[in-house]
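Subgroup meeting minutes
Present: P.N., E.W., G.H.
Scribe: E.W.

1. P.N. recapped why we're keeping a running log of single-chain structure predictions: easier to compare across weeks, and new members can see raw inputs and outputs side by side.
2. G.H. added today's entry (313 aa).
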Amino acid sequence: MAITAAMVKELREQTQAGMMDCKKALVETDGDMAKAVDILREKGLSKAAKKAGRIAAEGLVALIISDDAKSASIVEVNSETDFVAKNEEFKTFVSDVANVALAVKPADLEALKAAELDGKTLETVLNEKISKIGENMTLRRFAVEEQANGAIVGYVHGAGKIAVLVNMESSASADKLQELGKDIAMQVASMNPKYISGDDVDPEYIAHEKEILMAQAINENEEEAAKGKKKKPVEIIEKMVVGRLQKELKEVCLLEQVFVKNSDFTVGQVVKNVEKEVGNSIKVSSIVRFEVGEGLEKKEENFAEEVAKQMGN
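Output recorded in log:
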């Protein structure tokens, strides 16, 4: 498979590795982007593996929570430029989409687009705004949360760049759940956990990360040996990998993360402290975090041309 400058550019943006390292990884994997990322991580060349989905697209995220805090919606609408994202008409439309999603609770994105707003489908309204503003806009995604016994709390950060919903099941008072939920939502916005607890971690994720960490450790061991240092035995390497994996899981699991407002506690300990205070159990049932443009990229033709020139294409 021919490796193009655009492919190298994409891999470099995902990993922050050098251009030639990216090209070699793509050649080795015959253009498989995911495998190329793994190779760069194994070799310790990926400087930003956790930032694999570079934020590039503009737009807004918004959320709406019902008055009784039993249901909520969260949406993302993208625009081409930040200028349009700051437009009051665009902001109003994004808020309208969130309200429609909460009212209709559609099954999927197509159903949301078909839902009515002021006598027209959302898709029709969106197309009219595209024609009027002269810039492409996309209704990208949404989620609806419901909680019969407890509360849903939301937090919007950065003037609509990150939005979070925290769904909690509990008989505790609404005030206490609001206070705790806000703290947890800010934690989620800041630390972007992949899972709520270690029990929720996908076994395939663990197996994949263990494989990457093992390859990293073996490569490090070989490099140390090449410098004249004594090679570590396999059992020591395996223990190192287990330790690194446990550390990584603490970073990706919400309840095991260090609480950003007080580093003396984990988020799980904070929840338990509030449980003792209110005399009721509190379960974080689910979390939803939308960040504008995550996983999307803008076209950067000049940079692609620069890469092409350096690659000799």
